[in-house]
Amino acid sequence: MDYYKCPTHDLYSETQRRSLPPLSRNREQLNEDLVQDDIDRGSDATTIRTVDRSTLLPQTTRSAHAGEIGNTIVASQLVNEKIVYWTLNTFFPTLHLFFESGRSCVIDGGRLSDAFVGLDPALRFKLTDCAHEEEGRVSNSILPERFSDSGIGLVIQEAVVSQRTSIAVKNSQQWAPRDPPQFRIVTEMHTVIGLRLRGMNKMAFIWARTKAPSGGRLWGDIRLTLSDKCLEPSSYNNLQLNIIMPGATAIVLYPRKEGSTFDKEYYLKTHMPLAMKHWGPHGMKSYAVSELGADGPYSISSVMEFDSQEAVGKAMQDPGTKEIMDDVKNFTNSEPILVHGSIIGTS
Hints:
Belongs to the tpcK family. This protein is α+β, with helices and mostly antiparallel strands. It is about 20% helix and about 35% strand.
């Protein structure tokens, strides 16, 4: 946030609240101190208090995609779910979590225009740094190999709905414009979702805000939805086909089980070129293969990009698909899982 236009006494009071050393009463220096603290501590710096409201049901969102993401639920329904994949949407203010159970949830902050969803530093560290992430895909772990079978994963141990009070910089004369505007540091209350994953000693929260106050508000309310139908098993010969939603991306996951084997060299040099040979003419444009963390339920993921959802359907119906399926036994004894969904954001 830009604090420079606020009165000096507001800036000084805020530095005192944050226990920052008051090196100067100069407005420029106080502004720099607060901005740097925002960078260093993220949402921890702007949070005054967070109060548990677990019995509350977050308000229904008014976003255009509300009907697509399921019904609002209480946070406790997420306890003991294990996160295997997550995405932070670029276009819509949503965090999408996929679970080992086959269910998924969307944490949505779409009540404000131009809102984005953010994570407290401790939760972002756990999702992104402890379990290496690329474009929302958990692809590695910092666990050394000798602890690879420890069973530690992204298990949700606590989940709550809370009411948070945060600071905001706003024009105090919105209804009686002045020249120049009079900005003040004020407080706003907003709904957040708290998660404590295995290995975290306290709760961390997911929140929504805008880059600039929208409709008089900077911070938005979060809601939580859960879908039991995100993965709907059907079958295609020996392939378990799980359809997420219409789209142009297909992801193949190979489960990690006791006694399972996987020939990575054969997969990269023979199987994937075979898939490109048969599915390329139908709109398969590229693929990326990742070796996943040793503590997760899947060992390998392969992400394939198609021109459209129709292209995915045509590829599955191609006679060459049987050859691709029959080839699976040549590199693994695990049954692959295929999910495909829409590309709704890139960066």
